[in-house]
Amino acid sequence: MATETAAAHGEEGGLVFHPMDQFIVKPLFGDGAVHWYTITNATLWMALAVIAIFALMVLATSRRATIPSKGQSIAELAYGFVYKMVEDVAGKDAVGFFPYVMTLFMFIVFANFLGLLPMSFTTTSHFAVTVVLALAVFLTVTIYGFMKNGSKFLGLFWVSSAPLPLRPILAIIELISYFVRPVSHSIRLAGNVMAGHAVIKVFAGFAAIAVISPVSIVAITAMYGLEVLVAFIQAYVFTILTCVYLKDALHPGH
Amino acid sequence: MEGQLAHIGAGLAAIGSGAAAIGVGNVAGNFLAGALRNPSAAASQTATLFIGIAFAEALGIFSFLVALLLMFAV
Amino acid sequence: MATAQGDGLADATGVAEHAAGSAPGMPQLNFDHWGNQIFWLIVTLVAIYFILSRVALPRISAVLAERAGTITNDIAAAEDLKRKAQEAEAAYEKALADARVEANKIVADTRAEIQADLDKATAKADAEIAAKAAEGEKAIAEIRANALENIEVVAKDTAEAVITSLGFTADAKAVDAAVTSRMKG
């Protein structure tokens, strides 16, 4: 049945809803086709993320208080958290990339947490989104690496500490792992978020059966707790890997 | 028939998730063992821990993805 | 995915509803929607980037720097105040010691003064007492002398009165002589 088109899903289903339905991109107004400019539910939740970030980072800090309010404390905490990460992992000369890394971190964190609201749409569960994020990092690292280091950037693939006969083999492995980076970088985030949400939906589907429903509800609660953790950890992991890759661009060679 | 085979394949691919769980547990367990031997160095290595977990988990996510593709896309 | 389920599921409300032109099983792999998401994602990221890099981050950085400055100043001020407090304590200790020395001196002086006064008063009192005693003795001596004299007079008068009452005429000169000689005897 899975080979059939989606139109068949509705009729065949024993489950009252399909676990993957929550990820469907729909136009927000009307039922028309989704063009590139259409305002969809993805647009809505991205806009909400922007508003939330604006509220936290701009409105909450508008008083510029020396003794911060709660909101300002959180904004400062986020600032310090990402700034320290960039400085510690990518090095002191990478602080120029700090606004960029901060943008990625704030967007992913807010998209993940907004996606945990019931009935919401999780933008970061889509490969379209995470692939763009990961490719942006990949291209930044590659272009900046070549701009700053020139051909020395290729030293990243030439492991000079290894014995000479091994080096070409290692170079191939390094090259492959370098190009797999954006793949794993993007799929890790989308996969984690999607998997968690889908599992919650699967349990929610079982909740309709009276006998299983208590177990199901407990399981949903537990999964939700795990997802809250995952939402933050995946944002953290995405950001810290960005910093690790930036370090390669700034200081190639092992 | 072909659909059923895809489902079997998806189930087999899902084993990879369990393998990733072993990997993640290995990373975290070794970190804990090291941290208990030298607690003062543990705090500075949490970033490494998360990176390690992320790499171990990524491969599990790949197998999960393969399962999903077999289920829905093939 | 969903195969035959129990009746519980079948009669549960609702049937899965799919939007028109919905994706195959995984909406993530519906490439028709990628353009839309990528476009809006880029808009979102640019918006966030400008919010953060133009407004939020400089502001937070300024606040943090200002706070660090304030804390440094406060610590310096606290050090200053601590030093002042120590100085004040030292001054206080010194004043206390001085005051104690002074007090001891005053006590000693006062004691000496009082002692002198006391000695003077005692001496004066002694002198007065001595004078009074001398005066008293003189008065006693006078009284005694007067008394002796009076005794002679009384004795003569008495002797004359006795003689007269016996019926004799008293010879004053003889009585006086007799009394005087008796008194002396």
From TrEMBL, chain B:
Site (Reversibly protonated during proton transport): 57
The keyword Transmembrane helix belongs to this UniProt entry's keyword annotation: yes
Subcellular location(s) of the protein: Cell membrane; Membrane
Keywords per UniProt: ATP synthesis, Cell membrane, CF(0), Hydrogen ion transport, Ion transport, Lipid-binding, Membrane, Transmembrane, Transmembrane helix, Transport
UniProt membrane topology term: Multi-pass membrane protein
Protein role: Key component of the F(0) channel; it plays a direct role in translocation across the membrane. A homomeric c-ring of between 10-14 subunits forms the central stalk rotor element with the F(1) delta and epsilon subunits.
A Pfam short name: ATP-synt_C
GO cellular component entries: plasma membrane; proton-transporting ATP synthase complex; proton-transporting two-sector ATPase complex, proton-transporting domain
Family: Belongs to the ATPase C chain family.
Encoding gene (name): atpE
Keyword tRNA-binding attributed: no
Matches recorded under InterPro entries: ATP_synth_F0_csu (IPR000454), ATP_synth_F0_csu_sf (IPR038662), ATPase_proteolipid_c-like_dom (IPR002379), F/V-ATP_Csub_sf (IPR035921)
Signal sequence annotation: none
Transmembrane segments: 12-36, 48-73
Protein's organism: Lutimaribacter saemankumensis
Matches recorded under Gene3D superfamilies: F1F0 ATP synthase subunit C
Listed name of the protein: ATP synthase subunit c
Main location (coarse class): membrane
Domain V-ATPase proteolipid subunit C-like: 8-70
Domain of life: Bacteria
